[in-house]
Amino acid sequence: MRRFATVILTAFCISALPMPSIAQTGVTQIARNVREIDKNFDVADKNHDGKLTREEAQSGSTPMIANHFDAIDADHKGYVTKSDVHAFIQRNLTRGHAAAASSSP
């Protein structure tokens, strides 16, 4: 839950800056998407250990996690946690801001 709050706070802070991708979706939509990913994570986590293996991610309703599994599993553990997923989202939100800022005149 603490990681979720950090992701939302980061998204909120970043949304105050000029960035087309955040401006189009908004913080509320990002929060909804993260909650949906968390819900789908729980459904896909068949053994309820708080970890998704690649197989669980691919067979569950978590296409974002399945499609980006290697990038989310930055430590190459063979599984991902919600914290890993939240960190991946946060990195991409930050990376999107950096890219938008560098392309500004």
TrEMBL record:
One of its GO terms (molecular function) is calcium ion binding. It comes from the Bacteria. Residues 32-67 form the EF-hand domain. InterPro entries: EF-hand-dom_pair, EF_hand_dom. It holds the Pfam family EF-hand_5. PROSITE patterns: EF_HAND_2. Keywords: Signal. Transmembrane segments: none annotated. Residues 1-23 form the signal peptide. This is EF-hand domain-containing protein. It comes from Dyella dinghuensis. The lineage of its organism: Bacteria, Pseudomonadati, Pseudomonadota, Gammaproteobacteria, Lysobacterales.
